[in-house]
């Protein structure tokens, strides 16, 4: 079954003003929708980042994939690597760690692999989860992903979630997300306010939700000394602390005295980071993400490595749409040692989904693998056309949380660590 054509459609969808250690989300988030077509008339879907430099890299590799068999995934990975010729991408906001040449290959390859697995599944009438070894769980739990946020984008009306800049606002946001989706664990994106304020917010969440597992993620905003202090204050309150401090060395320093496991989606983001991290026990949980770990099969390999070294496994997310959510759910359903609820930004962006409704609905904070062959999701072509038009008109070509923050506060600087 040969690849005959690949369509790349950059899209932009509404994103609320979510705060993080790099600044604040712009009104539009970007993704690229990937459609792979074959000579047998079966097509498959993938979803990836929408920054211009990434789109350019996707375009660079497309010609080398035309004519490939959709089952030849090893060869596909090799061709992506050859076409990129050692290029290394750049993480402009710094929220997902350092890029490397092999990591860039994995990032570019991922949406094509997912689309080919979608095609394989459709061809044999089986869901993608079956191509990954089959379901080890019927449903995949996701966590409520809380953000400090402004009431609305400056100059625009307040959004449906309102302001969350203090413990009361954070608790109210958690209630809103839990009432709507039924989530059974909570993650707070931190690194926005001094750590004492974020500890207070976590304690307020603990009081409001006494039995719900909690996590805090400041995206490396703290020095190791601050990380150690915060870790001690959150002893017994969070199930893990995510990326308190920058780099493998900083995380190892915090880990040596933190009473809870440390998790990362910043210092171990590619296979070559695993050995140095294991050597100094920098992290005890890895947040996998098929968008940069090289697709679903390589993420399954990562899971096996984590199991081998006794490292826990959770799942990371950026702003995304339903194709990504479906792929994450197939992967998580097939991964025995994915023992924490997965992150997802989906609630913040669900209103603009390119996936036709029905396939992805949360029950008690969890998703069942969409029924139907392949990924089990279909594109809504009208929405795709609308989001593609948004992309052409929005004027944004790369995520820039810091630059957007500086529009409102020219003195703002991105500093990591900050406290
Ligand atoms: O979207 C954000 O603001 C997040 O901070 C995201 O970019 C991070 O990559 C991610 O959610 C994380 O867990 O670090
Ligand atoms: Mg994180």
Automatic annotation (TrEMBL):
Domain Mandelate racemase/muconate lactonizing enzyme C-terminal: 167-261
Keyword Lyase in annotation: yes
Classification via Gene3D superfamilies: Enolase-like C-terminal domain, Enolase-like, N-terminal domain
Superkingdom per UniProt: Bacteria
GO-annotated molecular function: glucarate dehydratase activity
Cofactors (names): Mg(2+)
Family: Belongs to the mandelate racemase/muconate lactonizing enzyme family. GlucD subfamily.
Protein name, as recorded: glucarate dehydratase
Organism: Kibdelosporangium banguiense
């Amino acid at each position: 079954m040969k690849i005959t054509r690949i369509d790349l459609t950059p899209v932009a969808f509404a994103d609320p003003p979510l705060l993080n250690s790099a600044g604040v989300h712009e009104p539009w988030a970007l993704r690229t929708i990937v459609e792979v077509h074959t000579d047998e008339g079966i097509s498959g879907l993938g979803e990836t980042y929408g920054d211009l430099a990434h789109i350019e890299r996707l375009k660079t590799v497309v010609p080398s994939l035309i004519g490939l068999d959709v089952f030849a995934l090893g060869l596909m990975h090799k061709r992506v690597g050859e076409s990129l010729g050692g290029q290394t991408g750049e993480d402009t906001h710094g929220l997902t760690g350092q890029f490397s040449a092999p990591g860039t290959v994995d990032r570019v390859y991922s949406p094509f692999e997912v689309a080919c697995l979608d095609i394989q599944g459709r061809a044999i009438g089986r869901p993608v989860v079956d191509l990954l070894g089959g379901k080890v769980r019927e449903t995949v739990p996701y966590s409520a992903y809380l953000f400090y946020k402004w009431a609305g984008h400056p100059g625009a009306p307040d959004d449906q979630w309102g302001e969350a800049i203090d413990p009361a606002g954070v608790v109210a946001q958690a209630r809103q997300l839990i009432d709507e989706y039924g989530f059974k664990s909570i993650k707070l994106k931190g690194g926005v306010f001094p750590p004492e304020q974020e500890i207070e917010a976590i304690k307020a969440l603990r009081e409001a939700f006494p039995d719900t597992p909690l996590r805090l993620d400041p995206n490396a905003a703290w020095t190791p000394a601050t990380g150690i202090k915060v870790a001690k204050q959150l002893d017994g309150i969070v199930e893990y602390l995510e990326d308190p401090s920058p780099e493998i060395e900083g995380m190892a320093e915090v880990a040596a005295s933190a009473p809870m496991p440390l998790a990362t989606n910043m210092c171990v983001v590619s296979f070559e980071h695993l050995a140095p991290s294991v050597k100094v026990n920098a992290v005890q949980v890895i947040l996998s993400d098929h968008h940069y770990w090289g697709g679903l099969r390589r993420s399954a390999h990562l899971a096996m490595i984590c199991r081998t070294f006794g490292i826990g496994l959770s799942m990371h997310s950026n702003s995304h749409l339903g194709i990504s959510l479906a792929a994450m759910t197939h992967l998580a359903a097939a991964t025995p040692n994915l023992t924490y609820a997965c992150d997802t930004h989906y609630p913040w962006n669900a209103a603009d989904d390119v996936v036709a409704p029905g396939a992805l609905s949360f029950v008690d904070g969890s998703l069942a693998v969409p029924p139907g062959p392949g990924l089990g999701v279909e594109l809504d072509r009208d929405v795709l056309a609308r989001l593609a038009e948004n992309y052409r008109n929005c004027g944004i070509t790369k995520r820039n949380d810091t630059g957007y923050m500086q529009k409102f506060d020219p003195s703002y600087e991105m500093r990591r660590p900050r406290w």
